[in-house]
Amino acid sequence: MTDNISGDISGRVRPRDTITLSDDYYILRKTTFDFRRSDGQWQTQSRESYDIGDAAAVLPYDAARGLVLLIRQFRWPVFEWGLPELLIEAPAGKLDGDDPVTCARKEAMEEAGVAVSDLRLVNHCFMSAGAVKERISLFLAAYDSTAPRGKGGGHAHEGEDIETLEMPLDAALAMIATGEIVDAKTIILLQAAKLETQK
């Protein structure tokens, strides 16, 4: 076991070959590489990675009234797994060439119909690092729950059919415990919002 808990490991990885298995909605690649293990031995490995592009997610939070704005939509992989319910999430989307802040603002309006301000970065994280090549930037943001809202709902031509849910932060946190909220990025953002209220 090594004492080094961080640092550049580029010298321990030697890519050999990459092939594209699928290039449809997203890209699925298989790469063969040599990896130098912690005991110094080189080992040849093959791994598949699903390249879905980087993303941003935002939790609109009206701190004055203690409210958060979430969305609810159909997610095929979740349904295929066996959860026959709409998934409750924070607004999120692919960067598609935008920077994370711009993307977060755009998704809040497109999906939930709200303008957000005072974006605070929680973290850049990987949600399924063993298989999916996606870094998601997580933000908390302010919104005014009394202000007029845009249409929201997402884009029908992209298959989106999005509902909004506005509720007290503590009620949303309770939905994590009951299993009603199971989306990882949303769990992280709700917990980050709660921590922010305790400062």
Any overview of this molecule?
Strand 4 and strand 5 form a beta hairpin. Strands 4, 5, 6, 7, 8, 10 and 11 form a seven-stranded mixed β-sheet that branches. The radius of gyration is 20 Å and the shape is globular. It has helices at residues 76-81, 100-112, 169-177, 184-197; strands at 13-23, 27-36, 42-51, 55-62, 67-73, 87-89, 92-94, 117-126, 132-133, 135-142, 163-168. The protein is built from four helices and eleven strands. It has two domains: 10-51, no CATH class; 55-197, Nucleoside Triphosphate Pyrophosphohydrolase (Alpha-Beta Complex), CATH 3.90.79.
Proportion in helices: 10-25%
CATH topology (fold) name of the largest domain: Nucleoside Triphosphate Pyrophosphohydrolase
User: What summary fits the major beta sheet?
Assistant: 7 strands, mixed
- Broad structural category: alpha+beta
Count every beta strand, where a strand is a DSSP E run of 2 or more residues: 11
Give keywords.
199 residues, globular, Nucleoside Triphosphate Pyrophosphohydrolase, 4 helices, alpha+beta, seven-stranded mixed beta sheet, four-stranded mixed beta sheet, 2 domains
